[in-house]
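Service request form, structural biology core

Requester: graduate student, group of Dr. S.
Request type: structure prediction, single chain
Budget code: on file
Notes: please return the result as structure tokens.

Sequence provided:
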Amino acid sequence: MSADVTPCESGTRPKRRVRAGLLAPTLVHPFVMAMRAIELHSINRWEASFLREEVDGYFTHGIECTPGATVLDVGANIGVFSAAVYERLDGDVRIYAFEPMPPLHATLERNAREFFNGRLTALPYGLASRDDELDFSYVPAATIFSSSSRDQGNIEDERRRVTASVVEGIRQGGLGPVLRRVPARVLTLLISRKLRVLRHLETHRVKVRPLSSVLDEQGIDHIDLLKVDVEGAELEVLRGIEERHWPLVRQAVVEVEGWQQNRDTVCEVLLTHGFKVSTEQNSVQRAGDIGMVFAVRL
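Core staff response, request fulfilled:
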């Protein structure tokens, strides 16, 4: 790994919450929704609150947005990250939000119409290295786990991975001191049972496109922030950027699944294209084999 990559050790940023790590409180309080300003339409109300908790974690390691920015929200879900950016910049932003799952895109598009004053374009496809149609698994009870890389063949492995991360989050005090004292084997059993909702999948055939084609089509001539949260397809997204378009990207934040296998490759792609790269993984993320990569152009 290049010296430009600076890993963040476990515990350095205890307030950073991750997808699996924050699932536990949402299971206990499934109808809590705490939006600061824009109260978005949602499919599962708890997910909006959960996703909002993640947003601040994207703006670390030198990542920032200023008024007039162009932001790409890849893996937008219902638009929570987009809403947070819109609020931060008082609406002075241009957002392109990508969400291929039909139920999520319908909600994203409704939110775009009602809350973003024409500043958000909701695009009904995902990003990949080439034009294609793929089967995506949609989890109605927990849409944030919807992905092209999950299906009935591996969902039990995914459930175990997420369970391990949730249990670690609780043992780190994520739900207070009482639950922290519950034996790990008991927590594992309880959380695993709660996560049976992951077994209930719907399959949707969706369109994916390379980002470069979209940049040409939409006339995007600069990208102040590229946010990627695509449940395991991160490298596919990055490989869809042609060499001629990489100079347009000023900053990127990528949530990486399969951290042990994919971190170095994601970092190398960004380093090769002229970015200073930092990584972050705390103990909760480590239990779920995920982490964050932050890239700022030199």
